[in-house]
Amino acid sequence: MERCAILADSSAPLIPPLSALLRSRGLSCLELAGSGEADPASPDTLRWNPPSLLSAHTAILESNTRHGGLAAGVLAFDAEAFAANVAYEGVVDASAAVNTLVTGWIYLAESVFEALAKQGSGFLCFVHAAPPAKAENASLKQLPLPVAIAESAFLRLAEESARRHGERALMVRYETGADDAQLEWLASRILEGPPSRAQNRWHKAGSRGLFGIL
């Protein structure tokens, strides 16, 4: 069996079209659906409960059972999209939001890296999806506090992972609402693997050439 890519999670708007594009180019995908979404209808979609370490381990097990292992992982953090799916009406909801948007991503990232180390190949791509720079400041003011903090935690998770895991980690900035060139660029990076140089740097999706280092 050919190995697959795990993509999380489908509530980030870029994940479903990216998954479809990768499949069209011959890479099997296992798309994780967050607990706030409808029950997965596709056999290529798996329910993911972020605060559960067992759920992260199950995703890895399913990738092995269905596809023989991992070619890549893609973790996409879209704060605007996640804010609409995470219940937060006040401080009493803070713990649940943090468990979903911080703890859950740590569980999944570390589970993916552990699996990649065991099989001796593959990489994990962290994608920070955000509005264009001109709209970003206005957008941040509208985010619930735990979501804004979780976005910063995701960036740090990516950067620490790149520092610790080297060429097994790739960091990409993705501008939401842009044309399809970014999606095509991202799919190519996932299929080709991370560049062998310019590690520990953020790469801008859709930039010309291979690197597009920020």
What would you say this structure looks like, in words?
With 214 residues, this protein is α/β, with parallel strands linked by helices. The protein contains seven helices and seven strands, in the order βαββαβααβααβαβ. Strands 3-2-1-4-5-6-7 form a seven-stranded parallel beta sheet, sandwiched between helices. The relative contact order is 0.15. The model has no long low-confidence stretch (mean pLDDT 86).
Features:
7 helices, single chain, 214 residues, globular, 46% helix, seven-stranded parallel sheet, Rossmann fold, alpha/beta, 7 strands
CATH architecture: 3-Layer(aba) Sandwich
Note the beta-strand portion.
15-25%
Q: What strand order characterises the main sheet?
A: 3-2-1-4-5-6-7
Rg from alpha-carbon coordinates: 16 Å
- Name the overall outline: globular
Helical residue percent? Answer: 40-55%
Distance between the termini: 37 Å
Number of domains: 1
